[in-house]
Structures are given as C-alpha cells and as structure tokens.
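pls design
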C-alpha cells in the first residue's frame, strides 16, 4: 500500500472499494445515528476500532463507569469547532492554510486528547490514532484520514505526538491529493466509486489507504 499520487483512476477506485467491509458498516451506522444517541455510538465504534488502546476510553453519561467528563461532554466541547469545519475539504489546496480551520483542528485535538482517562501510555491521554478517528467521525468524514498504522505506513509518516504534527500530516494528505488530481486530470471527488459518491473526501481518502 502506498499514497495515491501515482495511482490510476482504476487503481484508486479499487483501493476504495476493497476497504474493510466491517468499517464500511460501522460508518453507515454512524451516519444514520440520531444526535441524541451519538455519544454512545461514538464510544461503541471507537472501542471497536481500538482507538485508545491500551488506555481506558471514556463512556457516555448514561453508562458512566468513571468520573466526568463523559463522551457527551466532549461532544459538547467539540461542537463549535465541528461547526467551524462544516465546509472543510481535505482536497481543497488551501484547506490547511485557512486560519479558521487550523484553529478548529487544534481545538479538536485538545478536546479528543481527553478520550481516554487512564492508562500506561501518554499519561493516560488519547494519542493521534484515537484523536484522528474521533475527529473523522464527528466531522462525518470531512477531516480525514484517521492516522492508524496502515495510513502512516502508506504515507511514510512517523509517530504523531502533537497537534502541529497532525496538521502537518493532513498537509501531506492534501499534497498527495493535489498530485493525484494533476496526474489524472480528474478531481478527487469525481474519482470516487459511484456507490461512495456521497461520502466526504476525508473519509474516501481513509478508505483508499486504510485496512483491507
């Protein structure tokens, strides 16, 4: 697996179409989740995705197994920054140069660093895998990919330990997309497989590089 810059349209589409079916089902479930139960669904999916391993991840208020804050509170804190990213597009060449977006991304890093509350690594805080997975979910795929080992290996990106490093990694993604568009003469959005045409570009990129 590698970045998409050298892919043909057919190769890119095949990568997206062969993304793990269980993750596709999780995504469909997330998009259809009513806002009132999103905290519980966020927790269920992130635990399934092992987002905070080996640390303990927070639960929603209804199933509280620890002291506040709960996932409900994190989502409340994240809401204004999610709204600030409502028009974010990882394929836009200026996306990571827009102050409103970069400020919102920094705030979301700080919020979702609190995804985990206890554990033996990072002083109990969540790392970039959990943070980027959570942000991809709560922005409905506008901010992506999630920087798990598959994506980092494909992009030749090392450990991401700070929010500036995360933004830099998103910049690498953006540059990869620009190269792909120039090489193929087709916009990233237009290259999506038709059955995934409604998905946001960050999610599509995640599917191209993520687990098979």
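designed seq:
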């Amino acid at each position: 697996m590698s970045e998409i810059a050298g892919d043909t349209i057919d190769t890119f589409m095949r990568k997206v179409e062969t993304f793990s079916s269980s993750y596709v089902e999780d995504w469909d479930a997330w998009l259809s989740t009513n806002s009132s139960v999103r905290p519980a669904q966020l927790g269920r999916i992130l635990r399934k995705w092992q987002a905070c391993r080996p640390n303990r991840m927070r639960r929603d208020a209804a199933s509280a197994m620890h002291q506040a804050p709960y996932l409900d509170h994190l989502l409340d804190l994240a809401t204004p920054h999610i709204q600030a990213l409502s028009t974010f597009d990882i394929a836009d060449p200026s996306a990571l140069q827009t102050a409103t977006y970069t400020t919102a991304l920094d705030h979301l890093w700080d919020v979702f660093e609190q995804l985990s509350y206890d554990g033996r690594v990072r002083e109990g805080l969540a790392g970039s895998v959990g943070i980027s997975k959570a942000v991809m979910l709560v922005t409905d795929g506008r901010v992506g990919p999630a920087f798990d080992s598959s994506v980092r290996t494909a992009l030749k990106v090392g450990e991401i330990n700070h929010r500036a490093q995360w933004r830099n990694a998103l910049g690498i993604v953006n540059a990869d997309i620009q190269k792909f568009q120039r090489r193929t003469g087709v916009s990233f959005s237009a290259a999506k497989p038709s059955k995934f045409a409604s998905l946001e570009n960050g999610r599509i990129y995640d599917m191209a590089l993520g687990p098979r």
